[in-house]
Specification:
single chain; 206 residues; alpha/beta; Ribonuclease HI, Chain A; Nucleotidyltransferase, domain 5; 5-stranded mixed sheet; 8 strands; Ribonuclease H; metal ion binding; nucleic acid binding; EC 3.1.26.4
């Protein structure tokens, strides 16, 4: 049997902030918190230093694959589009400045189209977390519509069947995603890319 390596978890942004000695404590502090910022460290000293804004070493460079279970591995850009009663969605998993996984399609729920492009935004986030679950990775969802995070975290009350279903499904995937809002049409390469992918699914050409 291998020797168990103790790990410590520092949370700079979360429901609770501080340094924790177990993943369970860390998870409670970050689950469902939009924009959670946290890392794991092999020593208490490194965790405390990072929490205070100091750096003794870079844990992300450590050759320890066990760190993979509690850090973001991909930034995932999501977007939706709408035209003539149909909506579409798209996502792109980005790492080291490259797209590693991507998908886009026309929405399958005609009734959801009443929410126009928001239906596509919701679908994109859902398909992204399902993909992350299949891959066994953690992701940060970069979105340009606030409700994508706020319905999932409960900061906005889900008032119709579609947002309620979204909140329920996202709750099932808690722990594998965090959120970060980006400004729409701001020249961000990957945000523009998924916007283009969603439009292309509907046959829209800029």
């Amino acid at each position: 049997m291998g020797i168990h390596k103790p790990k410590f978890y520092a949370v700079r942004a979360g429901r609770d902030k501080g340094v924790f000695s177990s993943w369970e404590e860390c998870r409670k502090a970050i689950y469902g918190f939009s924009g959670a910022v946290y890392r794991s460290f092999p020593t208490l000293e490194e965790a405390q230093a990072w929490f205070k804004g100091e750096t003794l070493s870079d844990p992300l460079k450590a050759e320890d694959d066990s760190l993979r279970d509690d850090r973001t591995e991909y930034d995932v850009y999501t977007d939706g589009s709408y035209v003539n009663g149909q909506y579409a969605w798209a996502y792109a998993f980005v790492k080291d400045g490259k797209v590693h996984y991507e998908d886009a399609d026309v929405g399958k729920n005609p009734a959801a189209a009443t929410m126009r492009n928001v239906a596509g935004e919701i679908a994109a986030a859902l398909y992204a977390v399902k993909k992350a679950s299949q891959l066994g990775v953690k992701i940060r969802i970069l979105h340009d519509y606030a409700g994508i995070a706020f319905w999932a975290t409960g900061e906005w009350k889900a008032k119709n069947e579609f947002t309620q279903a979204y909140a329920k499904l996202m709750n099932q995937y808690r722990g594998i995603y965090s959120f970060e809002k980006v400004k729409a049409h701001s020249g961000n390469e990957f945000n523009d890319y998924v916007d283009m992918k969603a439009k292309s699914a509907l046959g829209i050409r800029d």
